[in-house]
Structure formats: C-alpha cells, structure tokens
C-alpha cells in the first residue's frame, strides 16, 4: 500500500473512532431529543384532528365564552371545576366567537404549556436527582403519548400540573439555596394550581406536610415562610370575596366538592382495575424510584416519592374511571422512577437504550391508533364547526347524550353538558333540578337538538339502560330536519325566521319575541 493509501486509511480509522466516541457520549441524548421533537410534532399535527372530538375541550371553551358574555359560573351555568382557566381564556375565546378554529388555538396553547412543564421536569431531574441525560429521559417518558393525547387537551388539569411542576422546581431551589424569592415563587405556583383545579389539593397537602417538616428542621426560615404565604393568603381572600360578591359560597362548595363526591357513587366502575402495559411498567419504575430515594437519603427525591405513592394510592383505589385521571400520576412516577435508572446505568449502559426503545415503541403504536380513530369518525370533528357557522348569537343549542358540540350557542338549561349524567347527580345533590327537555324545545326552539332520548350514564355503563330524558319524536319531526351528523337535528327553515336583536342596555342578544 502506498504512503498516501496508508495515510487515508489512518484518517478513516481516526474518523470512525471519533464518530464512535461521539455516539457513546451523545448518541442517547440525540435519540431522546429526536423522540421529543417527533412527539411534539405529532401533538401539533393532532390539534387539527382531536380538539373538536374531545368533549372536555368543547366544555371549557364554552365555559370561557359564557364568561365573556357576562355569565358567572355556578350561578348562571353549571360547572364543577375551579374557574381560573375560563377567565384567563375568555377574551381569546370571545375573539374567535362563532369560529371553531378556537379549538385548535387553545389546544396549541395547551401543548406549549405542556412542553414548558417538561422543561421544569428536566430541571428538577437534572439539578436535584440525577444528571442532564436522565432529566431528558424523564421528560421524554412523560411526553410519550400512549393512547391518550393528554398534552393537547384544553382542560384545567394540564394547567394545574404545569403550575405544580413549576412550584416543585422553585421549592427545591429554595431548599438548596435559601433564597426567599424561590419560596415565594413556589407558593405562588402552588396556589395558582389550585385555582385551575381543586384536584391540586391532594398533592398540595403532601407538599404542605413536607414544608412543615423542613420548617421544623430549620431548612425553611420562618421569615421566608411568612413572606411566601402572603400571595396565597391574599389570593384565597380574593377568591372568597369573589364567591361572596356573587352570593355563591354554598353553591360553589356544592358544585365543586359535594357534587364531585356524589359523582363517585354514580359510577358502576369507579376505578381502572388494571393499568395499560406501558403504564404498569412506569408504576413499577416509580416504586423502584421511591425505594432508591429512601436508600440514597435525597430529600428532594423523598418528597417526589411521597407525591408518587400518595397519588398512586388515590388513583388505584379511589375514583379514576378514565385513563386521563392518571395524568398527574405519570408526572410523579417519571420524576420519581426515571432517575433511579441512572443508578443502574453505572453497571449497565444498555439501560438508557432500553428506555429509548420503549419510547419509540409507544410512539409507533400511537401513530397506528390515532390513524384508526380518525378513520372511524371522519365526520364527527366537523360537527362543532358546522353548528358554529349556522347559529346566530340568539340561537340555543342542546348538547347530546354523551356528545358535546356546542361551542357558542346559548344553553336552554342550567345543565348543558353531559345531560343524563351531570344533571342526575346535580339534582340528587340539590344544586338544581333536572331540565324538562321537551318543554324547553317547545318553548325556545333551539337551532340544534339531540333527536334521541338521554340515558342515565351510570346505569347505562352497568348494562341497565335507564332513560333520564325521553325526547318526544313528534316534536322533533314537527320542528326539525335531520342532518348528516346522525342524531343531531336542525330547526326547519320555516321556524327559523325570528329576528335576533341586541339589547341596548345590557348588550345581550335575544329574539324579538322573547
């Protein structure tokens, strides 16, 4: 071989060696980044398909719109969640009034909030539990879409979880550096998480106990604790004042607490008995992490272990009828469990690649599942848009049995979502009686109605169908035409000639004959 050939061979060999070195050093990190980017792109693409098929998205957009129209939750329309998200989004939703594009907009914002929560997950793991690689792995595990696209949902839970992760990060920053601002920020985020959803009370109770422990051990200074409590106490006073101003303290408690406790009793199956396979693996990993936290005596890790174990017990043995109830548990399991794999990697470098392989497998299966969902319901996603484009500000819309499609129409009754379910519990709780569907159709002549009877959601799930609201077919046939959306009917043109006017005093829309 010539001298030039030998030189070329050495260069190639050196290049391959350098590439192998880089791959060993950065290959796993690059694979995790590729997964995260692919998942983010998938979520962004799904905002064009999923939003209008998700009843929760419709529910919370509609609640925001009602607030923009001057209505007050609990008093003027039924709700059983805390109200911060509706007030924050009311101006934006009103800007998109009668345009179903708002579903994509709010879900895209939810996606951005979700991605920001992953930044806090990464920081918590990298700064307090393990290193940057496993911080990235924890974020990727949470981002794994599974069969439920949580991240693009416009529901209070997503914003609550974002606030909790932000609060936990700053809580740990304070414990590490003793800077008052970090504790103030942590307590502020914790309180805001409650304003998004009362579910935050459970993890906040655990965090409160740890806070008292650290205060007792002088890891939290009394002066700093006092400063940090100012915002939550002032916020609680303001929220109480809001409830008192509208004279609905009792109604708020009945709607958000008594109602939800009674809702538990209504479900035939109040919990998911078995986790899906990928979730079961994550739960075992969470318990492995909890044990590792105790062995390592890492106080940050122990706090996360407490959050994971208490959330697991609640979700496994209490009220968890649907998979999305485990969303917060996924965060705590990943934060608690994934860093423990970093301990194993010291003995087996293949651990990280097993995690990456699992993430790619879940991603692939999600692509297949979502393609099947879209193919099975090609028309359903267009229903809210069709209704939004065919109503005036005066028109009423009745949601269907287990169907949500009313974004901007006026509600014929106090109970307007999941009729046959929420109104049954609300009536039993004493909040408001169930509506008379047929009487309201005759009186208000909604632009769109559900043409079939409403069944009791709870008895229906247990195989004992029970009609809650019998819809008179004679009324439907007399006043309504069928649409391409199956059981949804539209008011006949000859009955849709009422003049829609805006009141010059209160600015509200109504028909001239109302």
In short:
The protein has 514 residues and is mainly alpha-helical. The protein has helices spanning 3-46, 55-68, 84-95, 102-129, 132-143, 156-177, 180-196, 201-216, 222-245, 249-266, 277-296, 299-317, 327-345, 350-376, 383-389, 422-429, 437-444, 457-461, 473-479, and strands at residues 448-450, 454-455, 467-469, 480-482, 488-491, 500-502, 509-511.
Plain-language structure description:
This protein is mainly alpha-helical. It folds into 2 domains: 353 residues, no CATH class; 122 residues, no CATH class. The strands form 3 sheets. The chain has a 3-stranded antiparallel β-sheet with strand order 1-5-4. Strands 2-3 form a two-stranded antiparallel sheet. Strand 4 and strand 5 form a beta hairpin. The radius of gyration is 26 Å and the shape is globular. The model has no long low-confidence stretch (mean pLDDT 88).
* Strand segment count: 7
What is the 3D shape? globular
Report how far apart the termini are.
Answer: 99 Å
Strand content of the residues, in percent? under 5%
Helix content range of the residues, please?
A: 55-70%
Report the C-alpha radius of gyration, rounded.
26 Å
Unreliable parts: none
Order of helices and strands: HHHHHHHHHHHHHHHHHEEHEHEEEE
How would you write the strand order of the largest sheet? 1-5-4
Mean pLDDT: 88
User: Which sheet architecture does the biggest sheet show?
Assistant: 3 strands, antiparallel
Classification by helices and strands: mainly alpha
Task: Tell me the domain tally.
Answer: 2
- Give the number of helices: 19
